Amino acid sequence: MKNWPNAVTIKEVGPRDGLQNEKTVVSTEDKIAWINQLSRTGLKHIEITSFVNPKWIPPLADSLEVAQGIERVEGVTYSALVPNLRGLEGALKADLDEVAVFMSATEAHNKKNINKSIDETFPVLKETVDQALQAGKIVRGYLSTVFGCPYEGKTDVKQAVYVAQKLFDMGIHELSVGDTIGVANPAQVYEVLEELLKFVPAEKIAMHFHNTRGTALANVLASLDMGITTFDGALGGLGGCPYAPGASGNLATDDLLYMLHGMGISTGVDQGLMIESAKFIENRIGRPLPSHTLQTVRATCE
To answer: What one GO molecular function would you report for this record (predicted)?
Structure first.
């Protein structure tokens, strides 16, 4: 308990990472309404969309309309994923606060996800980061398959650290460390963070867990022990990875809030408002979302 922080930052990625892999395409109007709800929950960071070619991620084809249509709330950082300079153009046109670049720690997943080798990806991202920084934007980096890959198995820690260092050298302000297929366990979390923390401070690392095997919250606890205070979550447990077969939803933000608040760790987020927002998007998706919190709410209502 001595290692647990007093406060944690939650970054909501549901509108992007959650909706990108849903079979039901949510209307532009409902996406905007949902993000507007999230903006009033106390969240300080919302990843709202992805400026990726619609051919690859059809559910987010309306990225510019969404980004331009939301109501901006003071104190909330609005972010979008961008793969390259073309994607950056859309984010700059929408005048978002932050952009996020992404790549994988493993060659096979990177080629499947980006259609480039790891070494081929570096110059593309460097050019994008440079242009974003010149435009006065904050740049976040996503590193996928840090703990395991659907094509290569367990990821070599040294390989993940190598790619992470390259991303920081480009000028990103924060790295989101991804358990893309939900295979990580607390021992792996300790192992990876021990290496990452040798060259970058804990405040520059965020953890991005998936709950495929039910270990996401255990991995959060391990991360807290290592001094990490920033976590990604998707409300209701939305999402997955289109290029990672079998990857189930992200760590549910509402479950994460329940655990943290019960531990006496502040987030600044209103859990009641988040549950109402979860019900809204669950209704629009048209299927029960997997978070334990929502299951409890449904059982209580019944």
So the answer is: lyase activity
Average pLDDT over residues 114-143: 97
Is the CB of residue 286 less than 8 Å from the CB of residue 24? Answer: yes
Q: How far apart are CA 122 and CA 278, in angstroms?
A: 37
Alpha-carbon span 23 to 177, nearest angstrom: 26
Q: How many CB atoms lie within 10 A of CB 98?
A: 18
Dihedral (CA of 54, 32, 270, 43) sign: positive
Does the model's pTM come out above 0.85?
yes
pLDDT digits (tens, 9 = 90+) for 239-252: 855 444 545 679 99
Q: Where are the domains of the chain?
A: 9-301
What's the pLDDT score for residue 112?
92
CA-wise closest residue to 258 among 236, 238, 240: 236
Three-state secondary structure of 58-78: HHHCCHHHHHHHCCCCCCCEE
| Residue numbers annotated as active site | 241
Per DSSP, the residues of 126-191 read: HHHHHHHHHTT-EEEEEEE-SSEETTTEEPPHHHHHHHHHHHHHHT-SEEEEEETTS---HHHHHH
